Predict the structure.
Amino acid sequence: MKKRILLVEPDFPIPIKSKNHKNFLPIGLLKIASYLRSKGIEVKLVRGITKGITDLDILSFNPQEVWITSLFTYWAKYVKDAVRHYKHVFPNAKIVVGGIYASFMPDHCKKFTGCDEVKEGVLHEAEKYFPAYDLITNANPHPIDYQIIHTSRGCIRNCEFCGVKKIEPNFKPKSSVKEEIKKRKVVFYDNNFLANTHIEDILRELIDLKKRKKILWCESQSGFDGRVLKERPYLGELLKKVGFRDPRIAWDWGYGQFQEIEEQIGILRTGGYNSQDIYVFMLYNWEIPFEEMERKRIKCWEWKVQIADCRYRPLDQTFDEYNPWKKDQTKEDYHIHTEAGWTDALVKQFRKNVRRQNICVRHSFPFFSNVFEKKRVEKEVIRAAKLIKTKEEKIRYLQQIQADYWFPDEITYP
Ligand code: SF4
């Protein structure tokens, strides 16, 4: 009789519409599934906690082991819920937890979730297997028409806020990926795609596949390493030729770095990208105080690039009850970096400013207005407001028609 292992993705707070989105697919479990199948082990995948009719199918599967994945440390409680649930359903099965949280905080994971075993790091044997996409049975609302691959594991850098070094301590680049490409939409999950020593060869093979219409577009889940781009600026053009969408670079440190970031953006623009399609990654609620982050935001406005903002949480944060609609949240609810002067109100204000600014950049619009966004005014009014030359005149006009307005070019406090 075949051995049976149930693979579980806990009920993470991912909106239903994003479940099969390329950022949220349990790709590690899908590779492990293929690996286990190759060893003659029967597998099933459950996403969330089984309920109702699905229980029957899973109950009759009656696995000897349940392997549960984990993600961010601050989503630990969902892993705990999954362990409790499957321990209750299969009291004789061994419950194993792996993934990011398990690797970062193995002792906490063991104690907090009550699992039988913690597996740390990447299961390297599974890495060479093509993910078992067939296990994603509910392809609504996003069919899996894309493929996730890695050209490297690990990273050459060691940024203090990043945990890659702990989970993937050694940088392991591949020299070719063309044989792995099976779908026309390709998402690279590398931590640092450009750091691969064979990057030029890889980009050239991708360009060849693109020319032969085997590739429609590519995306990199992480940002491109701007320092590598500066050392080898011709890579900007190669990325564009491959069809990489929405390229992102990171601006982690202070405002003083702006010339360097401007050069990196310039390389992407010379490569053929429009500034509106370029994103600058920014970590906020971290060491850079609010006002300086606002100056960075305004620089991005001048460059007309979008911002991919990321709220900082320490690597060992085990909860996150951040609620954008709730006022006066505290450190009891989520991590607020008070050490650098951040408050709940500043965190929410920065997020709000970035959102409004990105809308302006995307639509090449000089200001943001709620009534305009919700289309509560005629198109002609919107057009007229855009055509008015100076900011002062615009404000007068908006006041006349009693529309709210926000201009991205000034620091905006709560
Ligand atoms: S470059 Fe990116 S992946 Fe590498 S250590 Fe820094 S943040 Fe992490």
